[in-house]
Model the fold of this input.
Amino acid sequence: MAPPVHGKISLLAFLLGTTTFVLSRLFYWNDSLLYIWEELSVFIFFSNVALLNIVTWFLFSTKDAYKNAVRACFLGCVCGFGLILSFDSLRWRHFGWYLTSLSVFHWSEYYITAVTNPRSLTIESYLLDHSREYKIAAAASWIEFTLELYLFPGTKQFTVISIAGALLVISGEMIRKFSMITASTNFNHYVQYRKQDDHRLVTHGIYSFCRHPAYLGWFLWSIGTQVILFNPVCLVGYTIVSWRFFRERIFEEEIYLISFFGEDYVNYKKHVRSGLPFINGYEGPQSS
Ligand SMILES: C[S@@+](CC[C@H](N)C(=O)[O-])C[C@H]1O[C@@H](n2cnc3c(N)ncnc32)[C@H](O)[C@@H]1O
Done:
C-alpha cells in the first residue's frame, strides 16, 4: 500500500527534521569544526530548527499540508536532538534514547495510519494532543529524570537497565504497528460507537494471539520509556495509570464490539485472551 500524499509529506518533513542530527555530525570533520560545535551547538541547533521551519513553510504552502509538515518536522527535530544527546552526552544519553523513541512513536502513528487507513487520517493521528493526563505524565517523567540526575547522578548511568527499557520500547512499538497494519481499515485511534458498513471483525495474525495487541504494545512502550530513564517513581505511576486506562478502554470497546459483531465476538473472546495482564474486558452486564 502506498501512502497518500499526506503520508509522503509527513515522511519528507520528518526526514528534514532529522537532518539536525546529520548536520551535527558534519562538525566532527576536523578539530576546528568540532570546537565550533562544542561552543555553539545550542545556537546552531536552534538556528537549524528555525531554518527548517521556514523551508517547511515554503515547501508546503497550503494550510493542511503545512499543519501536517510542521508537526512531522518538529518530531524529526526532536528525533535529531535525541540522537545528538545519545551520541554526544554521557549524562543525558538515556534521555536522548527516550526522546528518539518518543518522536518515532508519534510520527509513526500518523504515517502508519496514512498507509493502512487513510480514511481515518486527521492531524490528531500524531496523537500529540492525546489528553491532559498524557501531557502531565510526560512532564512528570522529565522532571523526575532531571531531579534524580542532579541528586543521584549515578542512578542515570545504568546502561544495562536502559537497554532492557529500549528492548521493551522496541517490542511494544513493533507489536502496536503490526496490529495497526493487520487491522488496517478496521483500526481507528478512537473507539467507534457506530459500526461502519465495511467494519470487519479481525481475528487473524497478531489478533489470534490476543484481542488487544495495539493496547498491549502501547502499554509495553510506555513502561519501557520509564525503564530507559530509570525513573522508579514514574515507572510505578505509569504502570498503574496506564493499566487502569486500558482496563476501562477495553471494557468500553468490547461493549461496542459485541453490539457490532454479536456471537462472533463473544466466541472470539472465549478463545483469545485480552493480552494485558489481569484484564478480562466486558463479561456481560454483571461485570460493570
Ligand atoms: C485503537 S483501536 C484498538 C484495537 C484493539 N483494541 C487493539 O488493541 O489492537 C480501536 C478500534 O478498533 C476496533 N477494534 C478493536 N478490536 C477489533 C477487532 N478484533 N476487529 C475489528 N475491529 C476491532 C474498535 O471498534 C475500535 O474502534
Summary: The chain has a mean pLDDT of 93. The chain is about 70% helix and 0% strand. The radius of gyration is 21 Å. Residues 179, 183, 186-189, 191-192, 201-202, 207, 212-215, 253, 256-257 surround S-adenosylmethionine (CB under 6 Å).
